[in-house]
Design a protein that fits this description.
The chain is mainly α. Among the domains are: about 45 residues; about 35 residues. The protein is built from five helices and no strands. It is rod-shaped and about 165 Å long. The termini are far apart.
């Protein structure tokens, strides 16, 4: 035979369920308060992540600049052996310039002396017979 539920069991069981539920209310309240504390930072996280799309664009520009710099650095790197060689030669440049300056001074002295010696010859040559005739012919041919 089927058993018929006793209505008193339900009435008597309700207070037990209510007491159990009341015991859970404090832990639910505590957990709800902790959830509220943990979700307070979500506004700050959202504000911080708002900048991410702009940062992505800026990082793309930085990456392009780095690529260009890599190319330039490679060019410099390939030129380094030549630059080192030039630097070695440049170390002797002051000495070479000093020697050149001395030689130019010697050349200047020689040119002054030569000019001093040639000038009287030029005057004598201009007095030689037939000189005027040659000068007039040269003038006509020009």
């Amino acid at each position: 035979m089927p058993r018929i539920p006793n209505p008193f069991d339900r009435v008597l069981g309700v207070p037990g369920d209510v007491v159990g539920a009341l015991r859970l209310v404090s832990s639910i309240a505590r957990d709800t308060h902790r959830m509220a504390e943990h979700t307070e930072v979500l506004d700050r996280v959202a504000a911080a992540t708002d900048a991410l799309p702009q940062l992505r664009e800026e990082m793309a520009r930085v990456a392009e600049a780095v690529d260009r710099m890599d190319g330039r650095m490679a060019s410099i790197e390939s030129a380094m052996p030549v630059l080192v060689d030039v630097q070695k030669h440049l170390t002797t440049l002051p000495e070479t310039m000093e020697q050149l300056d001395k030689r130019l001074a010697e050349l200047h002295g020689s040119m002054v002396s030569l000019l001093g010696a040639v000038t009287p010859l030029g005057r004598v040559a201009s007095r030689l017979p037939g000189r005027r005739r040659r000068e007039s012919q040269e003038t006509l041919s020009d």
